[in-house]
Automatic annotation (TrEMBL):
Keyword presence, DNA-binding: yes
Family listed: In the C-terminal section; belongs to the class-I pyridoxal-phosphate-dependent aminotransferase family.
UniProt keyword annotation of Iron-sulfur present: no
Organism: Mycobacterium simulans
Transmembrane segment boundaries: none
Protein name: HTH-type transcriptional repressor YtrA
InterPro entries referenced in this protein's UniProt entry, alphabetically: Aminotransferase_I/II_large, HTH_trans_reg/aminotransferase, PyrdxlP-dep_Trfase, PyrdxlP-dep_Trfase_major, PyrdxlP-dep_Trfase_small, Tscrpt_reg_HTH_GntR, WH-like_DNA-bd_sf, WH_DNA-bd_sf
Renumbered residue ranges of the record's region Disordered: 68-91
Domain of life: Bacteria
Key words, A-Z: DNA-binding, Pyridoxal phosphate, Transcription, Transcription regulation
Residue ranges of domain HTH gntR-type in the record: 9-77
Gene name as annotated: ytrA_2
Length: 441
């Protein structure tokens, strides 16, 4: 195949830069393999160590990954490329069920109006967490059994997770993550130079034996989604949460456990949290899914040291999450109409999940969707299944975005499905899956 890009430069940084350019311009596509180091060294006229250093830089920035004997290849969603250039577009006319988004018609943030003069300006030097938000968050977290003595606010769940991880971990450290798991978290780990240690999940959450194996492999941190696991919809059952708590509590004091609670309010299942165990822990409750992703706000609870580290570092960056946003969040949490809308959303999502899973089961296709916004369907061949589904007018998300070493699948976001879409969608999924050989888990 003719090479559509040119690697150039004399130092590691400039060679890496030229490859980054080619990735952003689309001349090097996700999955493309980079040429062998020796070849590039000969072509550019530099030492092999320089090219190896350039490849290492790209790997540490989350642009490429090592693919065993197949060499080094461009990541699915290279962390150095802005979203606008990623080309994840869905063809015109297709019904887009690939996004993972909540239903915009069910988001309280759409109705926010700030009355003039209602906000007291927050100045430098004030507390990073507004007194009202702290009071509200404490009450709701404590009611859910999550210790709320130490709190901060971050710009969403992923920001909170990143801040907690970087408070303790260094490039090269291992982090146990769900497999399949949330694509953005996997991309974040790569961009931080952290190494993902896969832990398979079933509908009740991470498998105990797999988590024990990850711990034996020396992970420094564990990230678990308590409900609405993305992409499978898994939710920690009481038993699984109890077993995980015992397993994790028995570890050395330096293990960090981060719980991603991104779907509070609309998960559709009760919370069985890991919060409080072991000594270093963090629980991130995001407002994105229930109130609107644009709120960019999450409450982070944890042990004192963890929250202090996050606070201290936040102070040296954005400083704090805007008091305006905090005020809007508190306003929404205490507003009756907003609460009714969130309850309606939770019911609608639960009904869409169970109707789609039942329609698929009737047609002999296994699917998972215990909680949250998505249904996960194991398939034999993702590319074929996704293409067939797209030909029938439905865009689903390919499982490759979420998988490390688990079998293929595809994710369908059910948030804005209308009830008369369920049967035609199930028919199309059956066609797509049967065409690739049926598979159940
Ligand atoms: C597992 C998981 N955590 C967190 C988030 C997003 O949280 P935030 O918008 O607060 O960063 C998502 C969004 O899809 C998610 O799937």
């Amino acid at each position: 195949m003719p090479v559509q890009y040119r690697i150039s430069g004399k130092g590691a940084e400039s060679i890496a830069g030229s490859i980054e350019e080619a990735i952003s311009a689309g001349r090097l596509a996700p999955g493309d393999t980079l040429p062998p180091i020796r070849e590039v060294a000969a072509q550019v006229g530099v030492n092999v160590n320089t090219v190896a250093a350039a490849y290492r830089l790209l790997r540490d920035r989350g642009a490429v990954e090592t693919a065993g004997r197949r060499g080094t290849r461009v990541r699915d969603r290279p962390a150095t490329t802005p979203r606008s250039l990623l080309g994840l577009g869905v063809p015109a006319g297709a019904r887009d069920l690939s996004t993972g988004n909540p239903n915009p018609a069910l988001l309280p943030i759409a109705n926010v109006r700030l009355p003039a003069g209602s906000h007291t300006p927050v100045l430098y030097g004030e507390s990073a967490v507004s007194a009202e938000l702290a009071e509200f968050a404490r009450a709701t977290l404590t009611a859910d059994g999550v210790g709320a003595d130490h709190l901060t606010v971050t710009s969403g769940a992923l920001d909170g997770i990143e801040r907690v991880l970087t408070a303790y971990l260094r490039p090269g450290d291992r982090v146990a993550v769900e497999d399949p798991g949330w694509a953005n978290l996997l991309d974040l780990l790569a961009a931080l130079g952290l190494s993902a240690e896969p832990v398979r999940v079933d509908d009740d959450g991470p498998l105990i034996l797999e988590m024990a194996r990850a711990l034996r492999r020396g992970v420094r941190a564990v990230v678990v989604t308590s409900r609405a696991q993305n992409p499978t919809g898994a939710a920690l059952s009481a038993d699984r949460a109890g077993a995980l708590r015992s397993l994790l509590a028995g570890r050395s004091g330096e293990l960090l456990v981060v719980e991603d609670a991104h779907c509070a309010g609309i998960a559709g299942t009760p919370l069985h949290s890991l919060a409080g165990s072991p000594r270093r822990w963090a629980f991130v409750r995001s407002a994105s899914k229930a109130y609107g992703p644009d709120l960019r706000l999450a409450v982070l609870a944890g042990d004192r040291r963890t929250i202090e580290r996050v606070h201290g570092r936040l102070r040296l960056g954005p400083g704090w999450v805007s008091g305006l946003l905090q005020e809007i969040a508190v306003g929404l949490w205490s507003d009756d109409a907003a609460t009714r809308l969130v309850i309606e959303a939770e019911e609608r999502y639960a009904s869409n999940r169970s109707q789609l899973c039942a329609a698929l089961a009737d047609r002999g296709v296994a699917a998972h969707g215990r909680s949250g916004l998505n249904v996960w369907i194991p398939v034999t061949d993702e590319a074929v299944a996704i293409t067939r589904l797209l030909n029938a007018g439905w865009a689903a998300a390919p499982g490759t975005r979420f998988r490390i070493s688990t079998p293929p699948g595809m994710r369908i976001t059910i948030a804005d499905l209308a009830s008369d879409e369920i049967d035609p969608l199930a028919d199309a999924v059956v066609e797509a899956v049967h065409g690739t050989g049926r598979r159940s888990v």
